[in-house]
Design brief:
By secondary structure, the protein is mostly helical.
C-alpha cells in the first residue's frame, strides 16, 4: 500500500516557516561576578512600562513605529505591547530601541516562535545555554518579555566586553565576530527601517 506524502510535506513546510537562519552566540566561561550580575539583570521581571521624555514623545514614537510593523503584526494591541516592551528592555539595558528592532528583524523576522538551525530561540534568537548560565529552570525563551530581557542583557554584556564597539558586539551576539555581514545587516535594518529622530530628550543609545 502506497502512503501519501502530502501530510509529511505539509508538516515540513510548516516547520521550515518557523525556523530562523541566524548565527549562534558562542558559549563562553563567565567570571562569577559577571554571571551574578547577568543573573540579576534577567531576574527582574518588572512590568515593562517604558519611560519616555514626555507623553508626546511616547505617542510620537509609537505612532511612527507601529505602522512600520503592521504587516508583521496585524493585531494593534499585540503590536503596541511588543513596541512598549522593546523600548522598555532596550532602555533598561542602555540600548537604542531602534537598533534592537533592527536586530530582531535580522535575527527572527519578528517571529516570536522562531528557532534557528542551531537552536537559538525567539525574537532575539537567544541560545538556550544562557538559561543554564544566568537563568532558572522555568525560563521560557519564547515568552515576549523574557526573550527581550535576555537578548538586550546579552547584547549589553557584549558591548561592555567590546568597550562600546557596536560592530564587534553585534558580531559576538550572532556568533560571527570579525565578519561584516551580520553587523552590516543589522545596521542597515536599523537605519533604513527603524530610524527615529527624538525630540527634546534623546532616547537611549548604545555606546559608540
Amino acid at each position: 500500500m502506497q502512503l501519501s506524502l502530502r501530510p509529511l510535506l505539509v508538516a515540513l513546510l510548516a516547520l521550515s516557516s518557523c525556523t530562523a537562519w541566524a548565527g549562534a552566540q558562542r558559549e563562553e566561561a563567565l567570571a562569577a561576578s559577571v554571571q551574578a550580575a547577568l543573573h540579576a539583570a534577567v531576574a527582574d521581571l518588572t512590568a515593562p512600562e517604558p519611560i519616555f521624555p514626555s507623553l508626546n514623545e511616547k505617542l510620537r514614537w509609537l505612532n511612527e513605529m507601529a505602522p512600520r510593523l503592521a504587516k508583521r503584526m496585524p493585531d494593534t494591541r499585540e503590536r503596541v505591547e511588543f513596541l512598549k516592551t522593546v523600548y522598555y528592555e532596550a532602555q533598561r539595558a542602555g540600548l537604542d530601541p531602534q537598533m534592537v528592532l533592527g536586530l530582531i528583524q535580522v535575527e527572527s523576522g519578528f517571529r516570536k516562535y522562531a528557532v534557528s538551525s542551531v537552536g537559538a530561540r525567539g525574537l532575539m534568537q537567544v541560545m538556550p545555554f544562557w538559561v543554564k548560565a544566568i537563568g532558572t529552570q522555568d525560563t521560557n525563551l519564547f515568552h515576549l518579555r523574557t526573550n527581550l530581557r535576555y537578548g538586550c542583557t546579552i547584547l549589553r554584556h557584549y558591548l561592555d566586553i567590546e568597550k562600546g564597539d557596536v560592530f564587534r558586539a553585534l558580531g559576538r551576539y550572532n556568533g560571527s565576530l570579525g565578519k561584516p555581514e551580520y553587523p552590516n545587516a543589522v545596521h542597515a535594518a536599523w537605519k533604513n527601517n527603524w530610524s527615529f529622530t527624538a525630540g527634546t530628550g534623546a532616547t537611549p543609545v548604545a555606546a559608540n
